[in-house]
Amino acid sequence: MNTQFIIKPDAYRRRDELIGFIQNRGYSVFRVQDFKMIPEIFNSLYKGLIPETIISGVFEYLTEDFCVKVESDISINNLMGLSGTNTDPFFCSKGTIRREFGAGKGVSKLGVRVIRNAIHRPKTINQNKREIILLEELL
């Protein structure tokens, strides 16, 4: 099964470079699709994972620009390692996606603190399956 991940708006302008970053490590990329984050996708991906106090700011961040749905043959575990295991790019190892492409901590236009970390990726096989179906249905 392929792994699906989402390039977030802070890395959108560098999407080709980010995809090349993955390909240069020996992984194939099969599908790439730009999309605008909509409430239905956002709520399905993040509801219950993000504190209610910052959810409006995170939604604002994810709608600043396009997102990119990417499918690759990289395994979930390898993607976790390559993307960085911490949410905050500052605490990720050098050479990881979040460290190299994430914009880091900031404040949304609504005044909510957000972490711009370049990539949304699944943590489990079941999450990956669910998100593949979700985006197939909504995009």
Q: How is the secondary structure organized here?
A:
Elements: E1 3-7, H1 9-12, H2 15-23, E2 29-35, H3 39-46, H4 55-62, E3 67-72, H5 76-83, H6 97-101, E4 104-107, E5 113-116, E6 119-120, H7 125-138
Antiparallel strand pairs: 1-3, 1-6, 2-3, 4-5
The level of helicity is 40-55%
How large is the share of residues in beta strands?
A: 15-25%
Query: How many separate helices?
Result: 7
Tell me the overall shape.
globular
β-strand number: 6
Describe what you observe in this structure.
There is one protein chain. This protein has seven helices and six strands; from the N terminus they run βααβααβααβββα. The protein is globular. It starts with a strand and ends with a helix. Helix content is 40%, strand content 20%. The strands form two sheets. The protein has a four-stranded antiparallel beta sheet with strand order 2-3-1-6, sandwiched between helices. It has one domain: Alpha-Beta Plaits (2-Layer Sandwich), CATH 3.30.70.141. The protein is of the alpha+beta class and 139 residues long.
Descriptive terms for the model:
6 strands, 20% strand, globular, Alpha-Beta Plaits, two-stranded antiparallel ribbon
